[in-house]
Amino acid sequence: MTSKSVKITDIIPQRKPFVFIDSLLGCDESSAETSYLIREDSIFTENGVFQTPGLIENIAQSAVAKIGYVSKFIEHGKVTVGYIGNVHHLIVKRNPEVGETIHTTVIFGENIAGIQLCEAVVRVGSEIIAQSSIKTAQDTSMPVDD
Amino acid sequence: MIKGNLYKLTSLTFRDAGYVADIALLPDSEIYKAHFPCKPITPGVCLVQIAVEIASVIEKRSLALAEAKDIKFLSIISPLEHKSVRYELSKLDDGGRWAVCIYAGGQLSSKMSVRLCNV
Q1: Per-residue pLDDT at B15
Q2: CA-CA to B57 of 20 to 30 Å: which in A98, B7, B94, B97?
Q3: Closest residue of B to A87, CA-based?
Q4: CB B45 to CB A54 under 8 A?
Q5: Alpha carbon separation from B68 to A6, A16, A29 (Å, rounded)
Q6: Whole-angstrom Cα distance, residue A32 to residue A103?
Q7: From the CA of B17, how many Å to the nearest CA of chain A?
Q8: For residue B15, what are the contacts with CB-CB under 8 A and spacing of at least 6?
Q9: For chain B, what are the domain ranges?
Q10: What value of ipTM does the predicted structure carry?
Q11: What is the pLDDT of residues A113-124, one digit of tens each?
Q12: How far off is chain A from B73, nearest CA to CA, in Å?
């Protein structure tokens, strides 16, 4: 896996304040890893704790970042809008707190008719705090302008 | 809490062993400007957060999402096309398990089976 020093909003369609990853640390054909510092002023931070819907969005944006990176920098196309289709077997051991940095690893499974299956693990340091399967879909009819 | 930012709770009633809540989406929310600049779409995770917030109103205590067995997003909810959205929530047991169906424009838009816990 190689390091990707790109601006995150160049490879995902979401904009602030709805951006829940800071960096794409690396990606290859079948995986991606991102990092995100939990902030006090985030939409999903309550009483210093980052809520689970924010973790789901972090996982989805981690998957979308790899897809966007490939679209933009390898295929030289455009980043497109993506949606979460399904969240399956989400288990949260604990929610991260303000000041902690989460590292999310996404392993890409099969892609059937444009629906991408992903398995994700969210860690703080070496501690696994959440796991889930998600399915995402890209809407190629909606490219995001630079 | 995204109540007041993304939506307003307009009604909440108990009916047929479950709860029916109607919400009004707020198209001017900063969330819609960010998701996405080219077209406002209600983020699926916000639909989940709204379910947690409605359940918290029902239970009169702060709840959080602990687990999701399954969450399906079947269709897109746009604040421009769907100003009103209906939630049907059923409490399945005393262990915090809930089933939630979300309807927009009379169509089932999302379905979730989740476990909520006390904050």
Answers
A1: 85
A2: A98
A3: B71
A4: yes
A5: 32, 26, 28
A6: 10
A7: 26
A8: none
A9: 7-118
A10: 0.96
A11: 889 999 999 999
A12: 5
CATH number, position A17? 3.10.129.10
The range of the structural domain enclosing residue A115 comes to 8-143
Total domains present in chain A: 1
Note the pLDDT tens digit of each residue in B66-95: 999 999 999 999 999 998 999 999 999 999
Q: Does A59 fall in a domain?
A: yes
CATH number of the structural domain B7-118: 3.10.129.10
- What tokens were used for B24? 């009004």
Q: Can you read off the two tokens belonging to residue A98?
A: 């303000």
How far apart CA B76 and CA B110 sit, in angstroms, is 9
Q: Is A136 within the bounds of a domain?
A: yes
H/E element holding A8?
Answer: none
Is A2 within a domain? no
SS3 A65: helix
Q: Look at the block and give the residue holding tokens 């904050």.
A: B119
Q: Which parts of chain A register pLDDT below 70?
A: 1-4, 145-146
Domain assignment present for residue A55? The answer is yes
Residue from B53, B12, B100 nearest A46 by CA: B53
Instruction: Please report the pLDDT score of residue A56 as a whole number.
Output: 98
With CA atoms as reference, report the closest residue to A141 among A86, A84, A78: A78
Does any CB of chain A come closer than 8 Å to the CB of residue B70? yes
Q: Do B67 and A18 touch (CB under 8 A)?
A: no
